[in-house]
Amino acid sequence: MASESGPAMASLPLQDRVVIVTGASRGIGRAIAFHLAALGARIVVNYVSSSAKADRVAAEINSSSATMSGLRAIAWRADVSDPEQVKSLFDTAEQTFGAQVHIMVNCAGISDPTYPYIADTKLEIFDQIFSVNTRGSFLCCREAANRVKRGGGGRIILIEH
């Protein structure tokens, strides 16, 4: 049996750390969720529009982590531009895994479907993009900062779109 400082621990540096990855149902967020899970983390796969994709990511993490004990990943819907849903996201992570959130990776973001033609961008589209990409980043970072401070430390990673 390996000691806590032996090879088993070195290969899973994030063993049982609780991680929220926003925008994790696809793209960069999905890849980050898989990578952190491979390092031993317990993952909350946050999504807003595709429960099927998010459920698939969580299921793949759980099946690939069969040698690790307990639930390794869940999918949770939360609109990052809504403060109550962001709070619920963090509450769910802590309740599900029985530990504080140690790491929050913010990958949620949307883009203008008319890009790169800003002349065609409608104000409503801009407001939606700003709400998710800027307000959502702020709300997630603020909630994470308060949680990790109470829990003794952690990491906040912000990926801009």
Automatic annotation (TrEMBL):
Gene: LOC111470837
Pfam families: adh_short
UniProtKB keywords: Oxidoreductase
SUPFAM superfamilies: NAD(P)-binding Rossmann-fold domains
Lineage of the species this protein comes from: Eukaryota, Viridiplantae, Streptophyta, Embryophyta, Tracheophyta
Origin species: Cucurbita maxima (Pumpkin)
GO molecular function, one term: oxidoreductase activity, acting on CH-OH group of donors
Name of this chain's protein: NADPH-dependent aldehyde reductase-like protein, chloroplastic
Gene3D superfamilies cross-referenced by the UniProt entry: NAD(P)-binding Rossmann-like Domain
Record InterPro entries: NAD(P)-bd_dom_sf, SDR_fam
Top-level division of the source organism's lineage: Eukaryota
Entry similarity comment: Belongs to the short-chain dehydrogenases/reductases (SDR) family.
